[in-house]
Amino acid sequence: MNSSFIGKSVESFVNFLFMHFRSWFDAFSAGLGAVIHLFEISIAAIPFYVMLVAIVGLAVWRKGVFFAIFAGLALGSIQYMGLWNQTVSTLSLVVAATFFSLVVGIPLGIWGARNKRVEVVLRSALDFMQTMPAFVYLIPAVILFGLGKVPAVIATIVFAMPPVVRLTTLGIKQVREELVEAGRSFGSTDLQLLWNIQLPNALPSIMAGVNQTIMMALSMVVVASMIGAGGLGEYVISGIQRLDIGIGFEGGLGVVLLAIILDRITESFGVKSKKKKKVKA
Fold first, then answer.
1. Start-to-end CA span in the chain (Å)
2. Rounded distance, CA 264 to CA 262, Å?
3. Phi first, then psi: what are they for 47, rounded to 5°?
4. C-alpha to C-alpha distance for 265 and 267, rounded to whole angstroms
5. Are 251 and 204 spatial neighbours (Cβ–Cβ below 8 Å)?
6. Percentage of the chain exceeding pLDDT 70
7. Neighbour-count burial of 173, counting CB atoms closer than 10 A to its CB (0-12 exposed, 13-18 middle, 19+ buried)
8. At what angle do helices 199-224 and 162-173 cross, to 10 degrees?
9. H/E/C letters for each residue in 45-110?
10. How far apart are CA 21 and CA 144, in angstroms?
11. What is a single Pfam family found in this protein's UniProt entry (predicted)?
């Protein structure tokens, strides 16, 4: 099976980048790798029981006692299955990918909300990023950055960024016009309008985007273990390669438990923000 002109053109473009900008990609890879390593050693330095107490306490604060009990049992189950190190590795990659997705995605979302042409261009790009099969991102990432955690995080950023861009744009555009006009009538600058009126009122939508970005990053990090990302995904793939149902199930269960904890806690920040907004209204 051979690719058509379109596929060959894309392949030639990636090869051109690799041949002419290899030193740039190597330097970028080294810098990003150092940041990822910093996230990993910071999270790995936290003892299991300290992490358990911190997450259970956070769960009590955000979701209540019953979810805190579930979170404690979930983390205890991961530790019992001997998957804590793999979970820390996966969590580190999710945190790194989410951090960079938010650093790039939220400003892009703000720009899109303020400029119609930018929004049109962004929407097309985000449609492409969101609908392209996740495995496809691994191919150019491996060619340009080699194997390991750096290409895994880059592919994850591309896959996970669209929700936070879309929902930041949507949240800012949904801020009531009378609030914006009131700010302008008091002489607020564009930056003051953004910081004091638009971002606070768009916070529930932005937090929903953060939640979705974390979930997509978690799903992609597992896929990215095929190129050496390690973590729980590598455990699952090991089960597939060995046709070992037990290993595959335990790895998958670890991913599910981690996803539920991250989803419920991050989701609660958006819900609480909505309640505060209704009270103020």
1. 60
2. 6
3. -60, 155
4. 5
5. no
6. 95
7. middle
8. 170
9. CCCHHHHHHHHHHHHHHHCCHHHHHHHHHHHHHHHHCCCHHHHHHHHHHHHHHHHHHHHHHHHHHH
10. 9
11. BPD_transp_1
Residue 226 one-letter amino acid: M
pLDDT band at 108 (very low <50, low <70, confident <90, very high): very high
How far, CA to CA in Å, does 79 sit from each of 120, 153, 212? 47, 25, 26
> Which of 64-68, 191-195, 241-245 has maximum average pLDDT?
64-68
Between CA 73 and CA 79, with CA 76 as vertex, the angle to 5 degrees is 155
**How far is the C-alpha of 225 from the C-alpha of 251, rounded, in Å?**
12
| pLDDT average, residue stretch 167-182 | 86
3-class state of residue 3 by DSSP:
coil
3-state helix, strand, coil in the chain (%, to 5): 90, 0, 10
Residues 209-229 have pLDDT tens digits of 898 999 888 888 778 887 777
Nearest to 158 by CA among 135, 175, 176: 135
Question: Is the pLDDT assigned to residue 272 strictly greater than 60?
Answer: no
